[in-house]
Amino acid sequence: MSHIFTGPDGQDRCAWCAATPAYMRYHDTEWGFPVTDDRRLFEKLSLEGFQSGLSWRTILDKRENFRAAFDGFAFERIAHYTEHDVQRLLADAGIVRHRGKIEAVINNASRALELVAECGSLAAYVWRYEAEPATPGQGPVSVSPASLAMSKDLKRRGWKFVGPTTVYAFMQAMGLVNDHAPGCAIHGAVERAKAAFRPPGG
């Protein structure tokens, strides 16, 4: 049971969320629950790109700053950002100031608009790649056939910072796969949410 810890309320949870109260709130209320909102999906893909080489704790602590800096991750606005916006963002101490990652979000916003035009919504595209449930006893993984396929297709479409590990973390968070440990108190809630969920276009 090394993947489980007992929280202050006596409930067993995934061990990774033990680090901070913010992690636990994120784990209990967001991580793994199905998401169809296009802005939230784009936000998470963007933040996973920013996380590359860093910890999710760093990004989660700065998430509200990112939202303020990037217009709430409204990709229809971000697609029109200019070099002036890049310089503004590079000067913003509240976010991760990495030119390549900032420019990737702007690029990906235009690519997201293309996907919406083709598929009707970003959600309709993303949920084509819903992952198969993990094999019992398999333990944590960092990539999957679905994340490899989605990463390859996004790269083909011109997206940046969307490697298979980044995409798999996105899938875990947005509910495309339930990677809560079987003994985690939230595992069942996510399973029920997924059972009641109808993917867009499905």
Widest sheet: strand ordering = 1-2
Give the tally of structural domains: 1
Radius of gyration: 17 Å
β-strand percent reads under 5%
Q: Enter the CATH topology name.
A: Endonuclease III, domain 1
Please, what is the average pLDDT? 92
By secondary-structure content and strand pairing, the structural class works out as mainly alpha
Q: Which CATH class applies here?
A: Mainly Alpha
Topology pattern, helix = H, strand = E: EEHHHHHHHHHHH
Q: Can you tell me the CATH superfamily?
A: Hypothetical protein, domain 2
Keywords: Metal-binding, Zinc
GO molecular function: DNA-3-methyladenine glycosylase activity; metal ion binding
InterPro entries: Adenine_glyco, DNA-3mA_glycosylase, DNA_glycosylase
Protein name: DNA-3-methyladenine glycosylase I
